[in-house]
Design goal:
Elements (H helix, E strand, L loop, with lengths): L25 H15 L7 E10 L5 H5 L2 E2 L4 E2 L6 E9 L18 E13 H6 L3 H6 L5 H4 L7 H22 L1 H28 L2 H4 L18 H14 L4 E4 L3 E4 H18 L4 H19 L2 H9 L15 E2 L2 E2 L4 H20 L6 H13 L4
Antiparallel strand pairs: 1-5, 2-4, 3-4, 4-5, 6-7, 8-9
Helix pairs in contact: 1-6, 6-7, 6-9, 7-9, 7-11, 7-12, 9-10, 9-11, 10-11
Length: about 375
């Protein structure tokens, strides 16, 4: 049985019979893109720009009063928020009878602050690429569900995420194919952002006396930035643990452990930190969300195919309702070379499942890498 006829590759187009140029895998392109964005972000191109940081209203201010507010030009620092400033929003104070309260000395109406129009200066990429509940939901900037996945805070942040892709992304891409892996990775990142948004939205809007009793909620400011590829990487780890659960990996390059065990330990630590509301709880919310999406999608790959179809990137032709290798009831015959390659890929993947990655010879690793580059875009 060829790789295109496996359950996870059903409905894929047949491999072309003619020669094809070797191309970089999407996983490799993904690593190159992340590193390139990081390097470019350290150049003058990524100069700081001023962006709006949302409007914060004083508690209990009615909507009709907010609409009458006037924003002053004064720019003042927001207490407890580094590099965030605000312009006061004020409205005349009225007495019991609705008459404006006036200053006894000048006779001018006395204005009271009812809110803050906040601003900050951030590097260009971060300013327009990071994710936050406020930017995505309140300001409607939905592109941030994707762009935040390609930004990293520092070299260590980038390094750990790219190592995860380097060691495990290729295996998942070989299992899914280029297009499905693209959808899989981005979907895990998006679901990580959605998880962060929901927990932050509920935690921020719920009264404090209730929020403090409920674990997992994020009570931080809705404009707090979220960046990094970790949500997608956690999805990749969950998929790799499903594909090759018995593979032996060296955790932190020291402790040998089965891949499935290591991945679930990492996930458990993220859940624990989110439960406790520890440092980087927001990041761990995205990690958990990405892991959930990875767990589901790798077991339900038809969802990835449906997404590809919805955006116009679906497979050419359909095998639904036919036996593997048939289109419209006609058997598709492959060249013998393609059949041999499929058979060898099948054998290697089965070996990985049963004996782990460490069981592969140098030749088998090389063959699997080359087959990944030449796999059809399904």
């Amino acid at each position: 049985m060829g790789i295109a006829d496996r359950d996870y590759a059903r409905n894929a187009p047949d491999r072309a019979s003619g020669p094809r140029m070797s191309t970089l895998s999407f996983n490799t392109l993904l690593i190159i893109l992340n590193i390139s964005v990081f390097i470019l972000g350290r150049t003058p191109v990524n100069a700081p720009v001023e962006i709006r940081w949302g409007t914060a209203w004083n508690s209990g201010v009615p909507r009709e009063v907010r609409q009458k507010g006037v924003t002053l030009d004064a720019l003042l620092p927001v207490p407890g928020m580094r590099d965030v400033f605000y312009r006061p929003i004020v409205t005349p104070i009225t007495g019991p009878e609705g008459q404006p309260v006036r200053d006894l000395t000048t006779g001018q109406p006395v204005a009271g602050q009812i809110g803050q129009e906040r601003w900050t200066r951030r590097p260009l990429f971060d300013a327009y690429g990071h994710f936050s509940t406020g930017k995505a939901l309140v300001d409607g900037q939905v592109w941030r569900f994707l762009t935040f996945q390609f930004l990293h805070a520092d070299v260590v942040h980038l390094m750990f995420n790219m190592l995860g892709l380097w060691f495990f992304g290729g295996l998942v891409e070989q299992f899914l194919g280029r297009k499905r892996y693209l959808v899989f990775y981005l979907a895990c990142g998006v679901f990580g952002a959605v998880t962060y948004l929901l927990l932050n939205l509920v935690g921020y809007t719920m009264p404090g006396k209730y929020a403090s009793y409920l674990p997992f909620l994020l009570v931080n400011d809705p404009y707090t930035p979220l960046i990094g590829a970790s949500a997608g990487v956690f999805g990749v780890l969950m998929a790799a643990a499903y594909i090759a659960p018995k593979a032996i990996v060296d955790v932190m390059f020291v402790l040998p452990m089965r891949l499935k065990t290591a991945v679930y330990i990492f996930l458990g630590l993220a859940v624990l930190n989110l439960f406790r509301g520890g440092s980087n709880a927001g990041g761990d919310a995205a990690h958990v969300g990405g892991a959930i999406a990875g767990y589901y999608c790798i077991r339900n790959t038809h969802v990835l195919r449906n997404i590809l179809g919805a955006v116009g990137l679906g497979e050419r032709g359909s095998r639904r309702g036919n036996a593997p290798g048939n289109v419209g009831g006609s058997r598709i015959m492959k060249p013998s070379g393609a059949q041999k390659m499929d058979a060898e890929v099948d054998r290697i993947l089965e070996k990985v499942k049963k004996e782990g990655l460490s069981s592969l010879t140098a030749g088998e690793r090389s063959f699997l890498k080359q087959a990944s580059k030449e796999a059809p875009d399904f």
